[in-house]
Amino acid sequence: MSSYVRHGFPDLAVQDNIDAIISTSHRNKCVEYGQLFQAFHKFTVAAGQTYNISFKTGDKAIRAYPSVIAASADKVDFKFFEGATATGGTAITPYCQNRADAPTSEIVMNGGATVTVAGTQVAQAWLPGAAGVGQSRSGTAGAGGDTYWQLKPNTTYILQFVNGSASSNTIQLNEIWTEGELA
After folding, report:
1. What is the pTM of this model?
2. CA 137 to CA 148: how far, in whole Å?
């Protein structure tokens, strides 16, 4: 057998001192290679109002994982649109999860963007919350998993939050994605 392959696995997958096979998740490899990014944004949406976050992809392949959304009140409708037209807003900084290398993301994100064309709705999540004695009015959606959206290059997407509650709603979004060819 070749010196580069032991037990049918490449050398990089076998720990030398005990000949053990090392199993590493895809996301961990993306962190090592500087391909995993995260952006987080906390904002308040008035009762009955809508808040938009725009993001434009660059030339690299983008895999967006399910968002983590936490809301302080009930009745939040989250929608995901592709092929939008949006302007303005406040810049949201993406961070590479490999802080030792820390390459810059190609994604440009803006919170509070003005949307003139929403594009095609490709996903939706509902955070109904609860009300009453002993009930929580907060909720979360998303939360990882290994499924992802393969996004189009040089395309604007919208993350839209519609507050159907009778009160203002403070929302925290954590968005995670990989950039470039898979590690």
Report:
1. 0.79
2. 28
- Local structure of 68: helix, strand or coil: strand
DSSP-assigned beta bridge partners for residue 39: 175
> Cβ neighbours of residue 81 under 8 Å, at least 6 residues apart?
118, 119, 120, 121, 122, 157, 158, 160
- Dihedral, 21, 28, 33, 151 alpha carbons, nearest 10: 130
Of 116, 117, 45, the closest CA to residue 78 belongs to 45
DSSP designation for 93: -
The arithmetic mean of pLDDT across residues 155-174, rounded, is 93
Q: How many residues belong to the chain?
A: 183
pLDDT in tens, 80-90: 999 999 999 99
Handedness of CA 47, 77, 64, 150 (dihedral sign): negative
Task: Check whether 45 has a pLDDT greater than 90.
Answer: yes
pLDDT number for residue 161: 94
Among 68, 66, 75, smallest CA distance to 45 is for 75
H-run or E-run covering 144: none
Rg of the Cα atoms in the chain:
20
Strand 68-71 and strand 169-179: the pairing is antiparallel
